[in-house]
């Protein structure tokens, strides 16, 4: 996995990182990454982390098992940890800072678990929402406020139409 060739296009692409320690990610986040057993970034993480941290748009494509989830989650969680803003809920509508739409319940749970792990013991609150389970329970969790909402499209649409979220 570590020697996978990476092709990047775009102008003035930020330089890839060589380690989590020198990535500029907050120390608390780097500690959580280390606790996950990751010793060094995978190729897609080496490129995506500085690109997203520099506020650039990114469309990434890499094979299954290449570390794509952490590739986008780490810079997002880093930014939320740095802002230290509490989750917003206004007039009964939750306004997550980040919405991650994923096609299946399994993938939603997987992304949610990783996001929880990386944001452990921090201000960052993560909530998941997917079909086939109690809407009430998930709605209450969303309405309690979150920074990151990981959801399948159907359940997300349901919450948006009922003005519970976003
Ligand atoms: P993903 O492609 O995001 O589904 O990740 C595939 C697997 O690789 C998951 O089990 C991750 O926990 C693991 N993984 C992701 N990044 C790293 C890394 N930098 N070092 C070791 N394992 C990783």
TrEMBL record:
EC number: 3.6.4.13
Example GO biological process: regulation of gene expression
EC main group: hydrolase
Any one GO molecular-function label of the UniProt entry: ATP binding
Pfam families: DEAD
Domain annotation DEAD-box RNA helicase Q: ranges: 18-46
Keywords: ATP-binding, Helicase, Hydrolase, Nucleotide-binding
Domain of life: Eukaryota
Positions with biased composition (Polar residues): 1-10
Span list, region Disordered: 1-21
SMART domains: DEXDc (SM00487)
Name of the protein: RNA helicase
Organism of derivation: Henosepilachna vigintioctopunctata
Classification lineage: Eukaryota, Metazoa, Ecdysozoa, Arthropoda, Hexapoda
């Amino acid at each position: 996995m570590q020697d996978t060739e990476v092709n990047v296009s775009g102008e003035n692409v930020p330089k890839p990182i060589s380690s989590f320690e020198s990535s500029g990610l907050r120390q608390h986040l780097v500690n959580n990454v280390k606790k996950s057993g990751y010793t060094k970034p995978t190729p897609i993480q080496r490129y995506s982390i500085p690109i997203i941290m520099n506020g650039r748009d990114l469309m990434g494509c890499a094979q299954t098992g290449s570390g794509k989830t952490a590739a986008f989650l780490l810079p997002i969680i880093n930014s939320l940890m740095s802002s230290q803003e509490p989750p917003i809920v206004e007039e009964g509508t939750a306004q997550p800072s980040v919405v991650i739409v994923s096609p299946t319940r399994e993938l939603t749970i997987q992304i949610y678990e990783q996001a929880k792990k990386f944001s452990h013991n921090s201000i960052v609150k993560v909530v998941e929402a997917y079909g086939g389970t109690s809407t009430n329970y998930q709605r209450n969790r969303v309405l309690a406020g979150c920074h990151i909402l990981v959801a399948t499209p159907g359940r997300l649409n349901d919450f948006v139409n009922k003005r519970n979220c976003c």
